[in-house]
Amino acid sequence: MLLLLLAFEWNLDWKHLGPPASWASERYCVRKIDGAGGHSSDFGLLGVPWCKSKIPVEWSKSELLFGLYDFLPVYATRPVQHNQWGTRLDHSFGLWFLARRLQPEIIIESGVHRGHSTWILRQAMPNASIITLSPEHPRSHESEGPFYVDAKAFYFTEENFTDFASMDWDQVLGDVVRHRFRVDKAKVLVFFDDHQSHLKRVQQAQQAGFKHLVFDDNYDTGSGDEYSLRQICDQLTTGGGHSCSLSSREAEVRSQRKRAWERAVDMTELCSMSGAWWGIRGEMRDNFDKIKVPISHQDHIENYKLVQSMLQIYWEVPPLASPSLSYQRAYDPARTVGPLLGEDEREVYNRLGLDKLDEWEFSEYIQMAYARLK
C-alpha cells in the first residue's frame, strides 16, 4: 500500500494546497462548462477566495496521503459512528492531521456537542491536555445517540461554562499544567466549532496570545451562520468578488450548478436586493445566525485588511476525494480547493477502502481552515 502511494510522489510534492503565488494579483475567470458532473476540473471553477499566507505550510500532499492511510483505521473505531450535523470524514481527518502535525501540548476546544471532535483530538494526541468549552455537556445529547466524554479532559460546560473570550487563560492554563512555571502558548492549539464570527475569534485568540487556530465551519460567501474567514477573504482579488448581475456568466454557471449540488449558492442567495454580496448578503453574521449586522463593502475590506495583518499562514483542508469518486452531491467543487484524490486516482481511493464508506461521510465538507497568527 505504501509503495502504491509512493508511486504517486512525482505528483505529490505540493507545499501549499492553495492557488499558486502567481494568482496573487489576478481576478478569477469563469470557464465555460457543459455540465456539473463533479470532475476534478470543476474544482475552483468559480474562483476560490483565499486568505494570503506569508509563508507556505510545512506539509506536502504525500504527507497528507500517508496520514490518511494511518487515520482511516482509527476513524473506523469512533464511538459516534453517525455524527449527524457534526464533523464527518473530511474534517475529522483534517483535525486529526493538524493536531498530529503541530504536536500541541494543550488543546482548547470551543464547541463540543456529542464529543466526536474531542475523541478525534485524543486519538491524535494521547498525552495532550484538552480543555473543552460548551454550554452543554456531551452527555446531555444522549437522546441523539452515542456520545464521548474524555476522562482526562477539563470540561467547562453547563453551569461552569464560560465563553472563550471571557476565560482567564493565564490562570486556566496554569491550573491545567500545574507543574509548569509558564505555559508556552505557541504550543497550544485552539479548535473553534462554535458558530461564532471568525473575525471575533481571531481577534480574541490573538489578544490571549494564541497562534494556532482551526475553524471547523468555514462557510463560503452567501451561506452559513457566521462571518467566516472564507467570507472575509472573498475580495475583488485572488479569486473572489462578485458583480451580482443576473445576466453575467457567473450567474449562469451558479444557476446551472445549483441544480446539481445541494449547497451550491446561486445569485439570489449570494446577493441582496441592493447588490451586496459580501458576508451573507451584506451582513456580518454571528452566534448561530442570531446576530446580523449590516456592513458596507468598505467595512468588509477593512475586516480583510485586519485579518491579513494578523495572519502568518492560512490553509484549507482539501476535500478527500473528487465527487466522481465519493458520489457526494452536497458541496459544490466549483468553490473549493482541489481534492486530495482526484478522479484519476480511483485505485488509491479503492485501496484505502474509501469506496466502502457511505456517501454521507463526504457530505459535510465546509472548508475547514488552519490559521497561524503572527
Automatic annotation (TrEMBL):
Keywords: Signal. The keyword Signal applies. It comes from the Eukaryota. Residues 1-17 form the signal peptide. This is Sulfotransferase. It comes from Selaginella moellendorffii (Spikemoss).
